[in-house]
Structure formats: C-alpha cells, structure tokens
Automatic annotation (TrEMBL):
Species in which this protein is naturally found: Fictibacillus macauensis ZFHKF-1
Sequence positions that bind substrate: 65, 117, 162, 169, 193, 245, 263
Record Pfam families: Glutaminase
Gene: glsA
Any one GO biological process: glutamate biosynthetic process
Family stated for the protein in its record: Belongs to the glutaminase family.
EC class: hydrolase
Name this polypeptide is given: Glutaminase
Keywords: Acetylation, Hydrolase
Oligomer status and interactors: Homotetramer.
GO molecular function, one term: glutaminase activity
Domain of life: Bacteria
Catalytic activity: L-glutamine + H2O = L-glutamate + NH4(+)
Gene3D superfamilies per UniProt: DD-peptidase/beta-lactamase superfamily
Length: 309
C-alpha cells in the first residue's frame, strides 16, 4: 500500500522546519555528513493498514541506533531473557550513548542497558548464526518481515565508513572482552554491528515497524505474531526509559510515546494499539536526536493526544 499525502502532516512538517537550523548533521561517521540538513519527513501507519505521510518521504536513511531495539527483540527471541540480561542491564544511564564511564565504575562490569552503544554491541553478539554473515542475514530477514518490505537492505558505504572510523566502539568492545561480556572476535562483531546500523529504509518502512511494536508484536495485516508479546513489552519499555538516550526523561514528558532514535536522524515511534510512526530529519541536537523529528513528534502527540502517560 502506498502512503497518502496528508495536509495535517504537511502542516507539522512546515512547523518543524523552523527548528532544524538549531541542529547539526552527524559527522563522526563520515558518510552521514552528506545528508541534507533541511530534509524532513513523517509517516504514520494505522492498524487498518492505511498510511499517511508528508515531507521528503522517499529519502532512505540508515537506522543507526534504531537498530538496537530490533536487535534486542531478535536476541531475546534467539536466546531468552536470562541469557540476554546476564550480559546487559535494565537501567538508564543519564550518560551519552557512546560513553564508557559506567563500564568502569560498575562491578561486575556490564553495560547498563541495551540502548547505549556498549549494551547494543553486547546484544548484537548474541544473535544466533554460525558467523557474522549468517547473523546479519537473520537480522535482515527479521527487519524485512517487520517492515513488510523484502527490498530492505543495508548501505555498504555507511557501513564501511563507520567500520573504518569506529575507534570508540572498538574501545568499548575491547573493554567488554577483557571483562568477559563478549567472547567473540572484535573485528567480526564490528562488521556485524556496522552493517546492522547501516540498514536503510524510508520513513514509511520505519512507521510500519513501529506499528508492529504498537500492536503487541502482531502484524495487523496477517495476524501473525512476529515478536512474542513479552519481548515486545520489554522492547517498548526500553524505548520509554532509554530510547532517546539521556533525553529520554524530557521526551517522556513532552511527547510520551515509546520511541527510538538514531544519529542518521530517524526516530521510530510506537503508540500502543494506535499507530506506528517514522520521522526523519538529519539535523541533530547535542544528544544525537533529530531536532525536527522531536518537534514533529511533540506536535503530533499534542494534536492527537498520543501520550501514554
Ligand atoms: O555506534 C554508533 O555510534 C552509531 N552506529 C549509532 C549511534 C546512534 O545512532 C546514537 N543515536 N542517537
């Protein structure tokens, strides 16, 4: 089904345009800096399969940290809660997403949650598969099912660009290897993680994935349970407590929608039993969240009373 252009959403995009000059496109992954800072898009999926959209809805962007919540779902399905939460905790950090500080101050050393880079790397390590290629193929198959788009793939250029420059993530991995949180080869895991972060899609695909989380893990088109209910609940809860990093508290108050952001400028939202939302705007605030995306979600939440609180 194609997305219908929608006037109310167009108005929201127009209003969000006023704030995007206050942000900056991510540059620490070199390939991300070519994104158009003025791009803005929003798509909404409803349980009846209808889709509304506005803005630059055909632009594809990489998931970056949004992939963390999808990988968490898959790892929990593959390995179960006990194994996953043996490696990673449940608590927000209040620190930037790439911080190493809590790994050193907490004993035994273990990342505090699966939405920070250290935690996501530890969870990616748990995806089943005989090697990094097999693990990635399984993840891609899962993402294609969630987005209902068999064309979804990853951007080699962005994956390569991050792989070549991810010194901080490698530092996190070596630290965790020293402490037995991961046991595999650091470079193989970096390959898998950078491909995972480079999975690419449009706002519409992202909204469709948000809808699955919103509907308790069930694909409303087919009635198939793609994510078991209990795992879906865990993922949605992490979106509330840690989905917007150290801005999650303010986001919960201003917007109140379970959501996950990424440094390419995407944010996925899941309004329980109502909507899946995908927004895009590569101009970021200082925490690494899309500044236009945050504005659009705030406006949507106010206009349609979407806060879960
Ligand atoms: O590992 C990284 O730094 C990136 N691939 C993903 C970080 C990210 O998206 C944080 N988001 N706000």
């Amino acid at each position: 089904m194609t997305c219908q252009e929608n006037e109310q959403l167009e108005a929201i995009v127009e209003e969000a345009k006023h704030v995007i000059t206050h942000g900056k496109v991510a540059t620490y992954i070199p390939a991300l800096q070519s994104a158009d800072p003025n791009a803005l898009a929003v798509a909404i999926y409803r349980p009846d399969g209808s889709c509304l959209a506005a803005g630059n809805i055909d632009i594809k962007f990489t998931l970056q940290s949004i992939s963390k919540v999808l990988v968490l779902a898959l790892a929990l399905m593959d390995r179960g809660e006990e194994t996953v939460f043996h490696k990673v905790g449940y608590e927000p950090t209040g620190d930037p997403f790439d911080s190493i500080i809590k790994l050193e101050t907490i004993s035994p050393s273990k990342p505090l949650n699966p939405m920070i880079n250290a935690g996501a790397l530890a969870v990616t390590h748990l995806i089943c598969g005989n090697n990094e290629e097999e693990q990635f193929e399984r993840l891609l198959t899962f993402v294609r099912k969630l987005s209902n788009n068999p064309q979804v793939t990853y951007c080699e250029n962005v994956a390569h660009s991050e792989f070549e420059t991810a010194y901080l993530n490698r530092a996190l991995l070596f630290y965790m290897k020293q402490h037995g949180v991961i046991t595999c080869d650091v470079e193989a895991l970096m390959k898998l993680y950078t491909k995972q972060c480079a999975i690419e899609m449009t706002c519409r695909d992202l909204a469709r994935i948000g809808l699955i989380f919103a509907m308790g893990g069930i694909d409303p088109d087919t009635g198939v349970q793609l994510i078991p209910t209990a795992i879906n609940t865990i993922c949605k809860t992490f979106m509330v407590t840690c989905g917007m990093y150290n801005a999650s508290g303010e986001f919960a108050i201003r917007v109140g929608i379970p959501a996950k952001s990424g440094v390419s400028g995407g944010i996925m939202g899941a309004v329980p039993n109502k909507l899946g939302i995908g927004v895009y705007g590569p101009s970021l605030d200082t925490m690494g969240n899309s500044i236009g995306g945050l504005k659009m979600l705030e406006l949507l939440s106010k206009e349609y009373a979407l806060s879960i609180f």
